[in-house]
């Protein structure tokens, strides 16, 4: 469902390219951890896969479609419907309640009927935040905010979930619990999951490990722990 084909990315402000010939494939339901030190290109790769940015060279196909072929309006809709994003700093809107934050991607897609609220509440139940739907983000712990962000990322039933250092702002215990949630979502909903992380603890949950260095993939390994338990 995901094909990254010899992708290069250069930023105008930088001298060395952030990605130098990256190729990668993922099947539906796959769970890949993109690993490597800070600056190796993990976030850049996720941005290109999520169509937040375009490659300088090479192509990215999601469900057989090249994002380079979509116009701006179509691209925004396609991104909302196909891709869910989870960020290190949650990116919840502080003036909206938990429920309103999760509803937002559906409202943007024109769903303003009762199904919108129902669907958002169901997602909050799924991530264990069902009873805190009327709170504001500032009234939650970091781990709870990340759960809400995961509910928001899933509300449009994306085929691809991209998580960029989702445990980066959390303590060990909350980080582990967020990773368990993401792994459960991958397993139970069949959503393809790409995790960018420099934490080997977080990557432990992934089925495959993509080791990056200096903008290139150094090695791709199966995770024996997960392979055995599936
Ligand atoms: N918007 C940008 N403009 C210029 N350089 C960037 C930009 N984003 C990332 N880079 C550079 O690209 C390289 C890869 O960055 P990034 O993908 O963020 O790495 P990682 O997520 O693995 O830490 C780094 O050298 C970084 O400085
Ligand atoms: Mg990064």
TrEMBL record:
PROSITE patterns found in the cross-reference section: ABC_TRANSPORTER_1, ABC_TRANSPORTER_2
Statement: the UniProt record of this protein carries the keyword Lipoprotein: yes
Ranges where the ABC transporter domain occurs: 2-230
EC number: 3.6.3.-
InterPro entries xrefs: AAA+_ATPase, ABC_transporter-like_ATP-bd, ABC_transporter-like_CS, ABC_transpr_LolD-like, MacB-like_ATP-bd, P-loop_NTPase
This protein's UniProt keywords: ATP-binding, Hydrolase, Lipoprotein, Nucleotide-binding, Transport
Protein name (Swiss-Prot/TrEMBL): Lipoprotein-releasing system ATP-binding protein LolD
Stated family: Belongs to the ABC transporter superfamily. Macrolide exporter (TC 3.A.1.122) family.
GO molecular-function term, one example from the UniProt record: transmembrane transporter activity
Enzyme class: hydrolase
GO cellular component, as recorded: membrane protein complex; plasma membrane
Transport as UniProt keyword: yes
């Amino acid at each position: 469902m995901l094909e990254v084909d010899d992708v290069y990315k250069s930023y105008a402000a930088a001298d060395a390219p952030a990605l130098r010939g990256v190729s990668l494939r993922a099947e539906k339901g796959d769970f890949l951890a993109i690993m490597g030190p800070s600056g190796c290109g993990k976030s850049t790769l996720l941005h290109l896969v999520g169509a937040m940015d375009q490659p300088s060279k090479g192509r990215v196909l999601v469900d057989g479609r090249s994002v380079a072929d979509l116009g701006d309006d179509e691209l925004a809709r396609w991104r909302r419907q196909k891709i869910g994003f989870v960020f290190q700093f949650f990116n919840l809107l502080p003036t909206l309640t938990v429920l309103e934050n999760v509803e937002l991607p559906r409202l943007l897609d024109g769903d303003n009927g009762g199904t919108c609220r129902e669907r958002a509440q169901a997602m909050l139940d799924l991530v264990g935040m069902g009873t805190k739907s009327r709170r504001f983000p500032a009234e939650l712990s970091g781990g709870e905010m990340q759960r809400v962000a995961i509910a928001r990322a899933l509300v449009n039933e994306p085929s691809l979930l991209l998580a960029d250092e989702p445990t980066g702002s959390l303590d060990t215990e909350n980080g582990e619990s967020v990773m368990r949630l993401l792994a459960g979502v991958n397993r139970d909903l069949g959503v393809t999951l790409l995790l960018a992380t420099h934490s080997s603890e977080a990557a432990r949950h992934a089925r495959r490990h993509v080791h990056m260095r200096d903008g290139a993939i150094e090695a791709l390994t199966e995770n024996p722990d997960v392979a055995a338990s599936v």
